[in-house]
Amino acid sequence: MIQKLLAHRPPQTSWLILALLIGTGLTEFVPAWEAHSMLFPGILQQPAQWYRLLLYPFHVDGLVAWFLLSLGLLLWGVMWEKKLSTAAWKLWLLAAVLGGLGYAWFNQASGNPLVGPVFLFWASLGCALGVGLKYRASLKLVEKVLLGLAFLALGLFLLPNRGGVEILSALILLASGLFGFRAPPKTQA
Predict the structure, then answer these.
(1) By C-alpha distance, which of 69, 48, 81 is closest to 116?
(2) Hey, is 114 helix, strand or coil?
(3) 3-state secondary structure of 79
(4) Is 14 helix (H, G, I), strand (E, B) or coil?
(5) Which pLDDT value is given to residue 124?
(6) Measuring CA to CA, which residue among 123, 139, 118 is closest to residue 90?
(7) CA-CA distances (angstroms) from residue 161 to 5, 12, 165?
(8) Cα angle at 61 between 12 and 152, to 5 degrees?
(9) Per-residue b/e over 157-186, b at no fewer than 16 CB within 10 Å?
């Protein structure tokens, strides 16, 4: 099964996983990276710091976190990237920027920084759910199992969090699910 997964790996998701691995290495071995990859709520008043909206998702704390995130991205990417004609990076970019802006807006009074690819995770999960529901009649057994795992992953919402991340994650999950459900299918060449 692993050989089959590697043979049919989603190309854009694979590049994202590689970029997250590089971000994990930078987080571990380059102390200055942390100072530039954290997203603080005060960013809305500092246009010179808006580059952080693109960098904060690549701040991954540790190889275990990277592995678990990459596994989810890869499995759900297999399901939705091969079925949609839309580029995956558009979804992730939109999720990262809108999630970061929403976080900064909701938390203007706090000083808690945001790091990590939380919104990329929820966008990928939401899109997998949307695609899975749209194509449920034609899903292969493995894709049905992945859809079931995606529904189980929704249980992560029950874990306590703070700072409006749950609300933003839910909105990104819903929006990306609709994106996956409404996006045109990939045409077979």
Answers:
(1) 69
(2) strand
(3) helix
(4) helix
(5) 83
(6) 123
(7) 33, 29, 7
(8) 65
(9) eeeeeeeebeebbebbbebbbebbbebeee
- In the block, which residue shows the tokens 């790996």? 9
Burial, 75: exposed, middle or buried (Cβ in 10 Å; 0-12, 13-18, 19+)?
buried
Within 13 A of 32's CA, how many CA atoms are on the CB side?
0
Q: What are the tens digits of pLDDT across the range 85-124?
A: 667 778 887 888 888 888 877 777 777 777 778 788 888 8
- What does the pLDDT look like over 52-75, one tens digit per residue? 888 888 888 788 888 888 888 888
The first and second tokens of residue 111, run together, are 């000083």
To which residue do tokens 């904060």 refer?
A: 56
Query: By the 8 A CB rule, do 172 and 99 touch?
Result: yes
Tell me how far apart the alpha carbons of residues 175 and 42 are, in angstroms, rounded to a whole number.
26
Q: What does the alpha-carbon distance between residue 123 and residue 50 come to, in Å, rounded to a whole number?
A: 21
